[in-house]
Amino acid sequence: MPFQQGLLATPVPVHARHLFFAIEALEALPAALEALPAALDALAGHVDGVRLTLGVGAPLAKALGSQVDGLKPFPQLDAVVENPSTQHALWLWLRGEERGDLYLRAQALEQLLSPAFSLVDQVDGFLHQGGRDLTGYEDGTENPRDEAAVEAAILKAAQPGLDGSCFAAFQLWKHDLQYFKSLPQHAQDDIIGRRLSDNEELDDAPESAHVKRTAQESFAPEAFMVRRSVSWADTRGAGLAFVALGRSFDAFEVQLRRMSGLEDGIIDGLYRFSRPLTGGYYWCPPMTDTGVDLRLLLSA
């Protein structure tokens, strides 16, 4: 199946850069819209699906008059805790082993897209201790792997241009590490639902433990998704750049609703020391022998 291979590639590269774009001067129609197809054509030649992944937001599809079944904006949840929607038109996910290379590639991509898109946010991510969150806990322990990952994340559809695609949710979580580290070890373990020492799940973890809130097999239907998160740190603070991949947004959304207390009133312990700053939904098109497949966007 011709999906963007970097989505499920392991191990996760040491460095990542997430770029988020808005449509340039959208109010200045029709000139802004006329520049979009040419900019996407130019970008397509750089998207290999491995070192550079492309994600399309609902605002871009709408501006092009295109329809991608399953694509929608990040939801506004009516919950006690905040999960902000900061939906953007375009998401580019760069990966590599050298931070300077990512910086230069990102700069070139920003210039390439400048006639139609403006860069509105960027996040530099990094692999911490082989895949641990900055809290010290292992991230993604229950991730589906190999064929199970493909089954959970990659869409099998009869429609050309949709088969092999993937839906991605992105949230930038900011941790209060000073507060978290001030807690006794057992209290930290209870928030996560695992022991830091050996990553074993706690039999007597409270119902608010993150592991219990997000147990993928506990939903009906089961809510399996693939997480590809890395740590981040900049002037805003530090935490986890969370990416969840699925055949739709359903698995992520039911987990987020339960975490936020909308299912049973119990709020995930993560919110005691962390909160999301951003939230966006993106569609990652499939690949063909000649590059990324944008027919659903550009054939309208």
Set down the secondary structure blueprint.
Blueprint lengths: L14 E9 L7 H14 L7 E5 L1 H6 L26 E7 L2 H15 L3 E10 L20 H7 L12 E10 L1 H6 L2 H8 L17 H4 L12 E2 L2 E5 L2 E10 L3 H10 L14 E3 L3 E5 L2 E2 L2 E2 L2 H4 L2
Antiparallel strand pairs: 1-3, 1-4, 2-3, 4-7, 5-8, 5-9, 5-10, 6-8, 7-8, 11-12
Describe the protein's architecture and organization:
The protein has 300 residues and is α+β, with helices and mostly antiparallel strands. It has helices at residues 31-44, 58-63, 99-113, 147-153, 177-182, 185-192, 210-213, 250-259, 295-298; strands spanning 15-23, 52-56, 90-96, 117-126, 166-175, 226-227, 230-234, 237-246, 274-276, 280-284, 287-288, 291-292. Strands 1, 2, 3, 4, 5, 6, 7, 8, 9 and 10 form a ten-stranded antiparallel sheet that branches. Strands 11-12 form a two-stranded antiparallel ribbon. The longest helix is centred in the middle third of the chain and has 15 residues, at 99-113.
Structural key phrases:
300 residues, alpha+beta, 10-stranded antiparallel beta sheet, 25% helix
Task: Report the biggest beta sheet as strand number plus sense, adding barrel if it closes.
Answer: 10 strands, antiparallel
Could you report the average pLDDT, rounded to the nearest whole number? 94
What is the number of E strands?
12
Distance between the termini: 25 Å
β-strand percent reads 15-25%
- Contiguous uncertain segments of 5+ residues: none
Structural class designation: alpha+beta
**Secondary-structure element order, as H and E?**
EHEHEHEHEHHHEEEHEEEEH
Shape type: globular
